[in-house]
Amino acid sequence: MNENLTALIPELALVGAAVIGLLTGSWLPRRRQWIVAALAAVACATGLVATAVTMATGREQTVFSAAFAVDTATDFGRLIVLAALLLIIGMSVETVRGHKRETEYWVLLLLTGAGTLALLGANDLLMLFAAYLLASIPAYALAGFTKDARGTEAALKYYLMGALLGTAMLAGIALLYGVGHGTHYSELNAGLPAASYGLVAIGLVGVLAGLLFKVGAVPVHFWVPDVTDGAPTPVAAYVTTLPKIGGLIAGYRLLHQALPNSDVNWPLLLGILAAVTMTLGNLAAFFQTSVKRLLAYSTISQVGYLLMALAVATYSDFAQKSLLFYLAAYAATNLGAFAVVTELPAARALADYRGLARSHPGLAGVLVVCLLGLVGTPPTGVFVGKLEIFSAAIDGGYTWLAAFAVANTVASLFYYLRWLAPLFTTADEVPVNGHTVLGRWSAVTAYTAAALSLALGIAGEAALTLTTGPLLP
Amino acid sequence: MLTVVTFLPLLVCAVLLLLPRSLPDRVLVWTWIATAAADLALVVALWVGFDPDGGMQYQQRVRWIPSAGVGYHVGVDGLSLPLVALTCLLFLAVAVHSLRERRRVRSYVCLFLFLQTVSVGLFVALDLILFFVFFDLSIVGMFFVIAGWGHGERARAAALKFFLYTFIGSLALLLGFIGLYLAADPHTFDIVDLTHSNPLAGRGLYASLVLLAIGVGLAVKTPTVPFHTWLPPAHTDAPATGSAILAGVLLKMGTYGFVRIAMPLLPGSWRHYALVIVIVGAVSVVYGALVALAQTDFKRMIAYTSVNHMGYIILAVGAAGTLAGSDAQARSLAVTGAVTQMVSHGLITGALFLLAGVLHDRGRTYTMDAYSGLAAHTPRFAAVTAVAAFASLGIPGFSGFIAEFQIFAGSLASQAIATAIAVTGILITAALFLTALRRMFLGTPRLPETISAGGVGDLRGTEALSTVSLLAVALVIGVAPRWLLDVIEPASRTLTGLVAR
């Protein structure tokens, strides 16, 4: 049995940093708690280096009774998650600096990050559920970090939904275990085709329910706008980005490895979920006036596009490539937009962004890149992602879904433009103090994210070549 | 070389953004003029070295995103070189015309430099995704021009409509491109490779759907009836320079897409649906002309004549796909006419929109009834506008005549009825331009109340230079067209050969 711990350096680095950070943080004076943040950043960097080494030396393997796979999808997912965590750390600095629970913030962030990493490689239903819990529970606490009314409501909603759907997931796992005679994906792959259709279908729906909750897809998306609005902005950036990476890659692995030969028509189910998710997200975003709620609904619609890749997971060779690349591009672009929102804490409504192009041309530039990027305008990364994901859908026989996604993309343009247009107004009624900036860290994060988003579009080849490779059983 | 021509304006734009803010506006505009002139000089050099019978030239091919089948591939042939030249000329004219611009000049200049890169890039692109990138960015750039420098709040709504409408078109186009990409083996977006392999030959419904997606995408941009409704508000509320670029260059992206992508890449389906395309073209011609006739707003009227003029092009490319009853020479003539019409429309309508801008600058309104007897106050303006109007209605001696004559001669044999219907478009255009000229320039002098009778200024030096030079080129093409036709004709023959295979 392979118990090679060096294969798990990124996960161990985050958990280790969390434990050490918690201990040192307890003894550090409040003004020196930034040391824990530095520790967290070092842990992420370590993880990135370890992943790069794994990829460069071809050390793909499965560890611990093949319950955890370290393969292309895991490695690429780790790169996205760790880079995204670094960006989130960057934009959090000013928000939590000098806070009396600063250490706890960093520790919770590290733990939920570790849970997300664990989701990526989960090759066994029990591993999947453990990762689900590790990724979720610290995030509930983060959502209520400010302990104000809105934050508490957000945390409670997030927790209740998570607990409910976690139970559904556990029930689904129990069912699949019962009919498939195993929890490992390769055992399920062998056992499920012979099992009763109805039970497999119900079990799968249960497991998917948990994952759909993580990624914030319809019909379990209700927490997304409330948490995004109520939590501190960097946490909102976190919950709308990282769980999606973990949940979607975990879902892709589950469908691709455990259910390729099943009779259950899950591609159609996911195709419909994708269509409904993108449409509902877009429709709800149309007339939002709060930027955070608008972004929240925009992230729901983005999940709709991403679910297209899951629908054709076994039908198209483009599925994995498109999913991984789109996730990377989405993470950079979405975090860029959230970093701008973090940087301008006083601007909560769309109208507060009037005249930003004049007062802060740099931030306005980031918003133009990121919002048009979310639409999928070239030459940003999401454009290449959309190109690949549409190709995957058409190649997999889901042309109607691609056409649907195109219609939705056009619709989404409307609300992104509702945000962009006020930036360039020259009217005198620029809100007083609306454009006070938080500090340098958030701004630098915003620029970095926008640059990454553009780089993924212009030099996307470098990332795309890393996305092809088999999933390990 | 083509890469330099394409990205020179963008480079200058980046440099301008880095320069200190204290730079006077005039320096910025003069930098723009110098850049546009340099770009035009480069294109002239390209033209001199161009061998009309040499097919695709100045090609450059670099791996860009090979994993996605996307490459950076540029080149020009007889279909694209005239349009590249037109683009550079028109941007130079607009730059000269903008010397008096006072509102946020730095952003304005940068936006137009960006648009020039995008426009030239589109015409030289030989990769579907590269083409799409520029196609989409042209929409983004024009959105900001209309929203930022258009006429007030209405402009913002018009810009939004323009963006949404043409964005639908561009995404339909993207779906069609993906359809082509997936059909090709190996998967590629390269236009030259796809032309060569003709991946959708004999693919029936699939090929029809791809043509539908690409056709709709390009038809929205062109625009043809029934996808033209974004055009009048966008033009009416855009600044004059924006309108000139929108009509002169951006509309050509749609028609150019037909001759560069739809026809050579989907020859079978193109022939199969040629009649539909011809009908759309003929309807656009007549409908555009009739609606233009009913307008009371000068700029809106010109906008609708664009629908009419683009209709001729669609008629011609449709006729070029009709094999029955025509020979290769006639079809080639139709394509040559279509490309000539693209150039001609760019020059003449570009000038007309700049003139409409002058009118608005003086009287603050486009309503034709507000003016009367303008010729008495502004003889030069009246003269130049009259010349442009006559050129636009296709009077012999100007490029429009050459283009439309070739289109009709090339289409008549195979599509006699549609051509006959389209010819009436000329008649209506003549009527509407003459009526407009009579209403505004002749009769008793009367001006809008916003200006005093003594205060109306005639055409200024820069305004005259920009418009007259465009019309002069149209005149040269009309009198001695061989230098242009010699470049277009071999490419047209190649294209008709590709469609007929």
Summarize the SSE layout with pairings:
The complex is a heterodimer of chains A (473) and B (501).
Chain A: H1 9-27, H2 34-57, E1 61-63, E2 68-70, H3 72-96, H4 102-121, H5 125-143, H6 149-180, H7 185-191, H8 197-215, H9 223-230, H10 233-239, H11 242-258, H12 266-285, H13 291-311, H14 318-343, H15 356-359, H16 361-375, H17 381-395, H18 399-423, H19 440-458, H20 460-465
Antiparallel strand pairs in A: 1-2
Helix pairs in contact in A: 1-2, 1-4, 2-3, 2-4, 3-4, 3-10, 3-11, 3-14, 3-19, 4-5, 4-11, 5-6, 5-11, 6-7, 6-8, 6-9, 8-11, 9-10, 9-13, 10-14, 11-13, 11-14, 12-13, 12-18, 13-14, 13-17, 13-18, 14-16, 14-17, 14-19, 16-18, 16-19, 17-18, 17-19
Chain B: H1 2-18, H2 25-48, E1 57-65, E2 70-76, H3 81-97, H4 105-124, H5 128-149, H6 152-183, H7 191-197, H8 204-221, H9 231-237, H10 240-265, H11 267-272, H12 274-293, H13 298-319, H14 328-363, H15 374-377, H16 379-392, H17 399-412, H18 416-441, H19 461-479, H20 482-500
Antiparallel strand pairs in B: 1-2
What does this structure look like?
The complex is a heterodimer of chains A (473) and B (501). Chain A is mainly alpha-helical and 473 residues long. Chain A has a domain at 265-473. Chain A has 20 helices and two strands. A two-stranded antiparallel ribbon of chain A has the order 1-2. Chain A is globular and about 70 Å long. Chain B is 74% helix and 3% strand. Chain B has helices spanning 2-18, 25-48, 81-97, 105-124, 128-149, 152-183, 191-197, 204-221, 231-237, 240-265, 267-272, 274-293, 298-319, 328-363, 374-377, 379-392, 399-412, 416-441, 461-479, 482-500, and strands at 57-65, 70-76. The two termini of chain B are 33 Å apart. At the A-B interface, helix 17, helix 18 and helix 20 of A face strand 1, helix 5 and helix 6 of B.
